[in-house]
Amino acid sequence: MNFELKAQDSKSKARAGVLTTAHGEIQTPIFMPVGTVASVKAVHQRELKEDIKAQIILGNTYHLYLRPGTDIINGAGGLHKFMNWDRPILTDSGGYQVYSLSNNNKITEEGVKFKSHIDGSRHFFSPEKSMEIQRNIGADIIMAFDECPPYPSTYEYAKNSMDMTHRWLQRCIDWLKENPELYGFEQSLFPIVQGSTYNDLRKESAETIASHPCDGYAIGGLSVGEPHDEMYAMSDLVCSYLPEDKPRYLMGVGTPANILENIALGVDMFDCVMPTRNGRNGMIFTSEGIINIKNKKWERDFSPLDPNGTSFVDSDYSKAYLRHLFAANEYLGRQIASLHNLRFYLWLVNEAREKIIDGTFASWKNVMVEKLQTRL
Ligand SMILES: Nc1nc2c(CCNCC3CCCCC3)c3[nH]c(NCCc4ccccc4)nc3cc2c(=O)[nH]1
C-alpha cells in the first residue's frame, strides 16, 4: 500500500492525497459507505460504482462472522468475490460493534465475551480471533482490535482501557506476522488511537500508535456522544502526533459539517452510517441544508429532489414524489434517499479535495459548514 500527498492547504491542515491499494486507488479526503452485512443497505454494487462513485466500502466483521460466517466467505474466495465488489474494502475489528450492538458483553484482558444479537449464542472475540476473521474476509484495510471507552469515562478507566488497547495491538501485529494473507493480496493493519477526551492520554496513545510502522492510522474513541468541540480538539491533537505521510482515519464521523471541520484538521478518511441510516428515516442532506422529506411542506413541491445534486435520483424524482413514497412506506423511498445521501457525501469530500488542490479550501469550508447545517 502507498499513500502520496498531492496538495496541502496553506490556511488549514487539510490535505489531498492518493492511497493505492491492491484493489485500486482511493482519492483522499474520502468518505467510506458502510456495507454492514456485505451490502450497503438498499443500494446495488453497480449503483455504488457508477452513480455514487464509491471508491472504498466498509464490511462489518461482527456481522459477517455471525452471518454468513467466515467459512462461507472463505469458500467464495473472500468478501470481494462473495459480494462482487472489486474495489477496496475496509473492515472494522468487531470490538466496537460488540460494544454498540450486543447488550450482554464482558471485557477482559483476554478479549470480549458476548451474546449474538441475532440468536443469543455465546461468542468470544480476542485480538487473535479478530485478525483471523479479518484475514478470512480479506479486506484491503483491517483495523486493530481495540476497546472504545464509553463517553464520559473516568481518567482511570480511559487510561487502563488505552493501555489494554496498546497491548491488544501488539497481539494483532504478532498474530499477523505468523499468519500470512489467504487470497494473495496485501492486507494493511491500521492501529487505533484511544485515550478518550484526555489530552495527555491522547498524546501518549498517538505516540505509541505512531511508533508502529503501519500503512495508515485511525483515531478511535470519538463520535461517542462528546461535544463537537471536544471531538475537534482531540482530532487536532492526535493528527499533530501522527506521521504526515500516512492516511488518518477518523472512525464513525460523521455529519457533513463534522467531516469538513476534521478535513481542516488533517483527517483523510471517514465512515458513518448516517447517510444511509438517517436517509432511511427521510433525512436528506443537500448543499443548501437538510431536508426532512416527511415534512408536509414538501407535499406539493414538484421541483427536483436536489437541483444541485449529482445523483440520477436528484433530477429523476421530485420532493413531493419522495415524500409520498415515505408516507406510503414504499421501499423505493429508502432506496432513493440512501442513494442521494451517499452520493452527496462522496460529492462533498470530492469538492473538498478539489478546493484543497486549488488552494481555496479554508474559505469554502467556512461557508459550506454554515449552509450544511441549515434546516430547509
Ligand atoms: N474499532 C473502532 N471502531 C469505532 C467505530 C466504528 C466505526 N464504523 C465501523 C463500521 C463498520 C461496518 C458497520 C458499521 C460501522 C466508531 N463509530 C463511532 N461513532 C459512530 C457514531 C454514530 C453516528 C451516527 C449514527 C450512529 C452512530 N465512534 C467509533 C469509535 C470506534 C473505535 O474507537 N474503534
TrEMBL record:
<feature type="active site" description="Nucleophile">
    <location>
        <position position="271"/>
    </location>
</feature>
<feature type="binding site">
    <location>
        <position position="146"/>
    </location>
    <ligand>
        <name>substrate</name>
    </ligand>
</feature>
<feature type="binding site">
    <location>
        <position position="221"/>
    </location>
    <ligand>
        <name>substrate</name>
    </ligand>
</feature>
<dbReference type="GO" id="GO:0005829">
    <property type="term" value="C:cytosol"/>
</dbReference>
<keyword id="KW-0808">Transferase</keyword>
<feature type="region of interest" description="RNA binding">
    <location>
        <begin position="252"/>
        <end position="258"/>
    </location>
</feature>
<dbReference type="InterPro" id="IPR002616">
    <property type="entry name" value="tRNA_ribo_trans-like"/>
</dbReference>
<comment type="pathway">
    <text>tRNA modification; tRNA-queuosine biosynthesis.</text>
</comment>
<dbReference type="GO" id="GO:0008616">
    <property type="term" value="P:tRNA queuosine(34) biosynthetic process"/>
</dbReference>
<comment type="similarity">
    <text>Belongs to the queuine tRNA-ribosyltransferase family.</text>
</comment>
<keyword id="KW-0819">tRNA processing</keyword>
<dbReference type="GO" id="GO:0008479">
    <property type="term" value="F:tRNA-guanosine(34) queuine transglycosylase activity"/>
</dbReference>
<feature type="binding site">
    <location>
        <position position="194"/>
    </location>
    <ligand>
        <name>substrate</name>
    </ligand>
</feature>
<feature type="binding site">
    <location>
        <begin position="92"/>
        <end position="96"/>
    </location>
    <ligand>
        <name>substrate</name>
    </ligand>
</feature>
<comment type="subunit">
    <text>Homodimer. Within each dimer, one monomer is responsible for RNA recognition and catalysis, while the other monomer binds to the replacement base PreQ1.</text>
</comment>
<dbReference type="InterPro" id="IPR050076">
    <property type="entry name" value="ArchSynthase1/Queuine_TRR"/>
</dbReference>
<feature type="domain" description="tRNA-guanine(15) transglycosylase-like">
    <location>
        <begin position="12"/>
        <end position="372"/>
    </location>
</feature>
<feature type="region of interest" description="RNA binding; important for wobble base 34 recognition">
    <location>
        <begin position="276"/>
        <end position="280"/>
    </location>
</feature>
<dbReference type="InterPro" id="IPR004803">
    <property type="entry name" value="TGT"/>
</dbReference>
<keyword id="KW-0671">Queuosine biosynthesis</keyword>
<dbReference type="Pfam" id="PF01702">
    <property type="entry name" value="TGT"/>
</dbReference>
<protein>
    <recommendedName>
        <fullName>Queuine tRNA-ribosyltransferase</fullName>
        <ecNumber>2.4.2.29</ecNumber>
    </recommendedName>
</protein>
<keyword id="KW-0328">Glycosyltransferase</keyword>
<comment type="function">
    <text>Catalyzes the base-exchange of a guanine (G) residue with the queuine precursor 7-aminomethyl-7-deazaguanine (PreQ1) at position 34 (anticodon wobble position) in tRNAs with GU(N) anticodons (tRNA-Asp, -Asn, -His and -Tyr). Catalysis occurs through a double-displacement mechanism. The nucleophile active site attacks the C1' of nucleotide 34 to detach the guanine base from the RNA, forming a covalent enzyme-RNA intermediate. The proton acceptor active site deprotonates the incoming PreQ1, allowing a nucleophilic attack on the C1' of the ribose to form the product.</text>
</comment>
<feature type="active site" description="Proton acceptor">
    <location>
        <position position="92"/>
    </location>
</feature>
<dbReference type="InterPro" id="IPR036511">
    <property type="entry name" value="TGT-like_sf"/>
</dbReference>
